[in-house]
Specification:
By secondary structure, the chain is of the alpha+beta class. Helix content is 28%, strand content 22%. Helix 5 crosses helix 10, helix 7 packs antiparallel against helix 8 and helix 8 crosses helix 9. The longest helix has 21 residues.
Length: 396
């Protein structure tokens, strides 16, 4: 699938979702299969909540007790004590109705080591990351490696053996939110052939600059990123605007996905910003807008105006956060517009708790990943630069 066909497919499905946020009966089969598996396993189950686990990013706990993950990097982390740990993961309707290139990719870590890296190609999959005859205490992390738009997955209540327990891992000293596009998602980072096209199997958010920056700073993170989307337009191969692919349209929602949480659409669920208040919000948007704006001054002015309005939305929901606006990894043509948006926003609102930072464009010697996206080498360099800037701005 070429990038053009990929974006056309996204636009087509997006137009269907735009018609309303009603119940999706096509997902009821998956929901019933989840319940059936739970019953067959004799699972009363322990629901993953803030009381017994650290929830990473925007997660959604449904009435059945399944913890759904949509956005890149979302998931859960907990300290497990026991002998055996089985984890059941439920896929969304994309597994039965969508292309394989859109299945969810997930990782499970035990004490920081990735022990599972898998594509969800079945309605329910079982993973047993800890097995033995001796009781152990281990840190377990389940992370969504692929992005929200294509698919989601749910973590079923965990059936703990007698004597086993889970508890939240400690919060890290700092909290960051990243808002971005395919670069933040880690699009294509596992496929260093630039002529290859999109597949969730080659996305890995842990190899992208945002995740690396959070790790370097010892910070908890949340991400809201969608490939191909922007401030006023999604990626444009023909110079036409794609206003339906604007991050501001869904930033105040749980996520946006062509899959969903069984019969619940992610884009129809309001996000409770009280659940996660970051000290810093990093915005990296403009790469896709540039394909639409190019050198047209009127379009560039619209990008600046749209950016200013989005900054107001970000500030409304994150009143005490520092905002850092960055751009440049896949092209910095709109970076002067980012600086202008920051200046215009500050002049209009009097808010000076904001700044801009230029990221160096990727270099040929560092290679190119699928669809000419950044390699892990480029992501690492960007993370190093961003980490240094954040330390300077935040005093961390």
């Amino acid at each position: 699938m070429t990038k053009k066909k990929f974006m056309l497919l996204c636009a087509l499905v997006l137009s269907i979702f735009a018609s309303g946020c009603g119940k999706d009966n096509s997902s009821e089969k998956d929901s019933s299969s989840s319940s059936q598996v739970t019953e067959e396993k004799g699972m009363k189950g322990t629901r993953l909540t803030e009381e017994n686990a650290k929830l990473i990013g925007r997660t959604y706990l449904n009435d059945e007790g399944t913890l759904w993950c949509a956005l890149s990097g979302s998931g859960v982390e907990f300290e497990f004590t026991g002998k055996n740990l089985d984890i059941l993961i439920e896929s969304d309707k994309v597994t039965s109705t969508g292309p394989r290139e859109h299945y969810s990719r997930l990782a499970i870590y035990v004490d920081g080591e990735r022990v599972v890296d898998d594509m969800l190609n079945d309605n329910i999959k079982k993973y047993s990351p800890i097995q033995g005859d001796t009781e152990v205490t281990k840190t377990v992390q389940i992370i969504k490696l692929s992005e929200t738009a294509m698919s989601c997955f749910g973590i079923l209540p965990i059936n703990l053996e007698d004597g086993a327990s889970i508890k939240p891992t400690e919060a890290k000293p700092h909290k960051i939110e990243f808002i971005g596009d395919s670069i933040t998602c880690g699009y294509g980072v596992d496929d260093e052939e630039p002529t290859h096209t999109f597949a969730t199997s080659t996305e890995d958010v842990t190899k992208a600059y945002a995740y690396k920056t959070a790790q370097a700073l010892g910070a908890d993170y949340s991400m809201f990123s969608i490939s191909g989307w922007g401030i006023i337009s999604g990626w444009s191969g023909d110079g036409k605007q794609h206003p339906e692919q604007q991050i501001p349209l869904y930033y105040e929602k749980q996520a946006f996905s062509y899959g969903g949480f069984n019969n619940v659409e992610a884009q129809c669920v309001d996000w409770d910003f009280g659940r996660y208040q970051p000290e810093l919000v990093v915005i990296n948007l403009g790469t896709n807008d540039e394909s639409y704006c190019k050198t047209d001054e009127e379009k560039r002015a619209a990008y600046v105006a749209g950016y200013v309005e989005f900054l107001k939305t970000v500030r409304k929901n994150n009143p005490d956060s520092r905002i850092l606006c960055v751009l440049g990894i896949m092209g910095d043509a709109l970076y002067p517009c980012v600086e202008q948006a920051v200046a215009d926003y500050s002049a209009e609102t009097g808010d000076t708790n904001i700044s801009a930072f230029h990221l160096e464009p990727q270099k040929p010697e560092d290679g190119l990943a699928a669809d000419y996206h950044p390699t892990e080498t480029t992501h690492t360099k960007a993370a190093d630069a961003l980490t240094a800037e954040i330390k300077s701005v935040m005093g961390w």
